[in-house]
Specification:
3 strands, 13% strand, 165 residues, three-stranded antiparallel sheet, globular, alpha+beta
Length: 165
């Protein structure tokens, strides 16, 4: 023996050095048909950003593309599509409903189909992901259509799993 220690190749016994570790949070994908709102952006709806921020003031801290606190508010004020808003509302509702400081993340993309967007986001489980998406849609529609809405009512609906679309 030469005294040299033989190094194992990366991954050792055929696993390529990869080990799957459960995160406790899964990523869900939601397809949303924006219907008549497909070509509408936030700056097209009078007072939309202000009303949404009154309902969920913690959205002010969302970073978005810029990677800076307040980036999402800048996006809304400059005009962004409602699927993008749904993503952020869903994420914030999940955070508030779970009473945690956990920061959920997501992203939105357009599809080849004109009115359809796909929203990917983290959630504790599938049932909560579905309810949060439904509550986000309801909140956005209520704001657009001028219906009264409170944060506590939406969060209770999300936690209880009652109501929604």
């Amino acid at each position: 023996m030469s005294g040299k220690r033989r190094e194992k190749p990366m991954g050792g016994s055929g696993d390529n050095g990869i080990r799957i570790v459960r995160s406790g949070v899964s990523v869900y994908e939601v397809e949303v048909d924006l219907g008549k709102y497909a070509s509408v952006e936030t700056d097209d709806i009078k007072g939309f950003s202000k009303k949404l921020l009154k309902l969920l003031p913690t959205l002010r801290s969302h970073e978005c593309f810029a990677g800076e606190c307040g980036g999402f508010v800048e996006e809304m004020e400059g005009g962004t599509d409602l699927a993008h808003v749904m993503e952020h509302v869903t994420l914030e509702m999940l955070r508030l409903a779970n009473g945690s400081r956990r920061k959920y993340s997501g992203w939105t993309r357009k599809t080849r189909r004109k009115r359809i967007h796909v929203i990917h986001f983290q959630a504790p489980n599938g049932a909560m992901a579905k309810r949060a998406s439904q509550c986000a849609i309801r909140a956005i529609q209520d704001i657009i259509e001028g219906r009264p809405l409170t944060r506590s009512a939406i969060l209770n609906e999300l936690r209880d799993g009652k109501g929604g679309n």
